[in-house]
Amino acid sequence: MVVKMKSVLLVIISLVQAVYVYAGADEIYQNRLQALKSPLEFAYNPSVKPFIEEYLANPEATKELLSRSKQFFPFIEKTLRAKGLPTDLKYLAATVSALNPSAVNSSGSSGLWMMAYPVSKMYKVKVNTYIDERRDPLRSTLVAGQHFKDLYSIYKTWPLAIASYGCSPVTLNKCIHLSNNSFYFWDIYPYMPAFCKELYPRVIATAYIFNYYKEHGISLVEPKQEWETDSILVNKWLSFQQISAVTEVSVDELRLLNPTFRKDVIPFNAEGYFVRIPKSKSKRFEMLRDSVYRPIQASEIQAEPIDKMQTSPSDAPKAAVKPFTKKKVIYTVKKKDNINDIADWYDVSASEIKSWNKLRSTKLNYGRKLIIWVDGAKLGYYKKINKMSPAQKKKIKKKD
Q1: Does residue 397 carry a pLDDT above 70?
Q2: What's the rounded mean pLDDT across residues 43-55?
């Protein structure tokens, strides 16, 4: 009986010690966060503790994150500073994507800032079958910065601006209403959906680990050797495999340097796209530029199984991509013009005209200048149409 009592007593003592240790950790976290003077208000709350301990329980992943910050934080800080924003917003990028520009989550958000598709659409960030500008670290940071300014202008407090980034202002406004219209984050916290309520505490935990990793025995790993790069302008269809064959840069390296291209293919664009390659290989590319371009085989277009944006088989060429021979002409909308007639005159479809000119409807405003891509072999003929009289254009329609 005495032995049993001693065992129970030992268990109780162990539990009491554990409680003291746990309470001690809370106090340590609180004191350290208070020392971080930030506009983002890094105040300690028990909800932050599990996320701090998540970092501490995975030291290798934490080391990798700290290492990546050496590459991404300098330009993120510079961009945020230029927009008059707190540089500590960099911890948000580290929280949501672990500073991986190619990251994609289950809802389809992507990139360094894990930007949602509706946000990218709002700020005219290009996202299609082949291109995802949310994965461009520079472009996405500029857009994220503007989005943060817009969110802060609504809530006038960074905790709520960060929360609204996670779940949209519409959702957060409903939560604010449920909390009797409080604008204090921790009053609204119980009413928030999971990801929305977790985002700000996770950002606090990330800020903590970046500032106090040494105190927890985590050593900083030097970032992997980075190579100098050049940007080459590509304005034709080109695959990573083609570039790799000429420059001897591996496809994996090209993916790492160019996360914007979703299928290992640079699509045609009138203005062209800049592709990054190691500087030591740029001269070789320029010397052999003419031999690089050839029709892309369907096998060279890589699918992205982790991406939630579905594409149809028709998105990829079945055998080869035909050389682009279209030329651009400008047509000025006249009175009584309609989009179907214009499409008929230029031998294109109305939907193509809408796409080229980003039209939301088929209604055309008088005097608007339309971009139309036509068969290059008949460029002279199509150029004349803009100056034709209504009677002459009517003859074109009858002739067709």
Answers
A1: no
A2: 93
Cα-Cα-Cα-Cα torsion 98, 103, 109, 113, nearest 10 degrees, comes to 40
CA separation (Å) from 104 to 12, 114, 140, 309? 46, 7, 14, 10
Q: What is the mean pLDDT of residues 180-205?
A: 93
pLDDT at 324: 52
pLDDT tens-place string over residues 147-178: 999 999 999 999 999 999 998 899 999 999 99
Q: How far lies 222's CA from each of 94, 218, 226, 243, 392, in Å?
A: 17, 13, 11, 30, 71
375: which strand partners?
A: 326
List the beta bridge partners of residue 231: 276
Two structure tokens written together for 305: 């199984």
**Token pair listed for 395:** 């003859």
Give the tokens for residue 312.
């149809």
Computed from CA positions of residues 273, 275, 279, 281, in that sequence, does the dihedral angle turn out positive or negative?
negative
Write down the pLDDT at residue 231.
83
Cα separation of 399 and 214, whole Å? 79
Short-list 256, 18, 268, 238, CA closest to 128: 268
Within a 10 A sphere around the Cβ of 78, how many other Cβ atoms? 11
Lowest-pLDDT choice from 89-93, 193-197, 283-287, 396-400: 396-400
- Cα separation, 197 vs 307, whole angstroms: 25
* Helix ranges, 288-334 (H): 289-292
C-alpha separations of 382 from 22, 108, 246, 372, 396 in Å: 77, 42, 39, 10, 11
> What is the residue whose two structure tokens read 């510079």?
78
CB-count burial class (<10 Å; 0-12, 13-18, 19+) for 31: exposed
pLDDT tens per residue across span 203-238: 999 999 999 999 999 988 776 655 678 888 888 888
Whole-number Å distance between alpha carbons of 98 and 325: 43
Q: Six-digit token pair at 46? A: 């028990």
- For residue 41, give the DSSP letter: -
- Under DSSP, the state recorded for 170 is H
Match 């021979």 to its residue by tokens. 325
For the chain, how are helix, strand and coil distributed in percent, rounded to 5?
Answer: 55, 10, 35
- Check if the beta carbon of residue 356 is closer than 8 Å to that of residue 372: yes
